[in-house]
Design goal:
- The chain has 132 residues and is an alpha+beta fold.
- It has two domains: 80 residues, F0F1 ATP synthase delta/epsilon subunit, N-terminal (ATP Synthase, domain 1, Sandwich); 42 residues, Single alpha-helices involved in coiled-coils or other helix-helix interfaces, CATH 1.20.5.
- 28% of the residues lie in helices and 45% in strands.
- The protein is built from two helices and ten strands.
- Strands 2-1-9-8-5 form a five-stranded mixed β-sheet, with no helix packed on it. A five-stranded antiparallel β-sheet has the order 4-3-6-7-10, covered by helices on one side.
- α1 runs antiparallel to α2.
- The longest helix is centred in the C-terminal third of the chain and has 21 residues.
- It is elongated, with a radius of gyration of 16 Å.
- The chain starts with a strand and ends with a helix.
- The structure holds adenosine-5'-triphosphate (ATP).
- The site of adenosine-5'-triphosphate has 13 residues, from β10, α1 and α2.
- Adenosine-5'-triphosphate (ATP) binds next to β10, α1 and α2.
- Its main location: membrane.
């Protein structure tokens, strides 16, 4: 069975390093599937789930932006934050979602709206990844 090494690192330290058969992530240019021996690429990532497949099972991570590099049969993801489903505090994400939604409904300037929009995306991504 062909695999590739996946490493996910954030400013808080390593989140995951393991062998997988396929990685699916959302780059800013769209969804990318990486199989073993993929050509080298570097791509900025969106706030989205990274799906890691092996032996009929799938692991997921809630990844908050960052960058993915594929080289020498290794996928390296450097992200602002990345959480496994079991590490996600669902109540915290729900509160963050409500806070962001309240801000978006209020009359604040554009910069605050952008911040709120990104906070909303992070919260929705965490809720999606934590749900079965
Ligand atoms: P909050 O407003 O709840 O802090 P946030 O989206 O602003 O959410 P981030 O700045 O993306 O939070 O992340 C800060 C740190 O907190 C990171 O280490 C991230 O992994 C962690 N984190 C944020 N939200 C959660 C959550 N719901 N469950 C687990 N860890 C979280």
């Amino acid at each position: 069975m062909k695999t590739l090494t996946v490493s996910v690192v954030t400013p808080n330290g390593p989140v995951l390093e393991d062998e997988y058969e396929m990685v699916v992530c959302r780059a800013e240019s769209g969804e990318i599937g990486i199989m073993p021996h993929h050509i080298p690429i570097v791509a900025p990532l969106s706030i989205a789930a990274v799906r890691l497949k092996k032996a009929g099972s799938e692991d997921k991570l809630a990844v908050n932006g960052g960058i993915m590099e594929v080289s020498s049969n290794k996928v390296s993801i450097l992200a602002q934050s990345a959480e496994k489903p079991s590490d996600i505090d669902v109540e915290r994400a729900r509160k963050a979602k409500e806070r962001a939604e309240r801000r978006l409904q209020s009359n604040q300037d554009n910069i605050d709206k952008l911040r709120a929009e990104l906070a909303l995306q992070r919260a929705i991504n965490r809720l999606d990844v934590s749900s079965k």
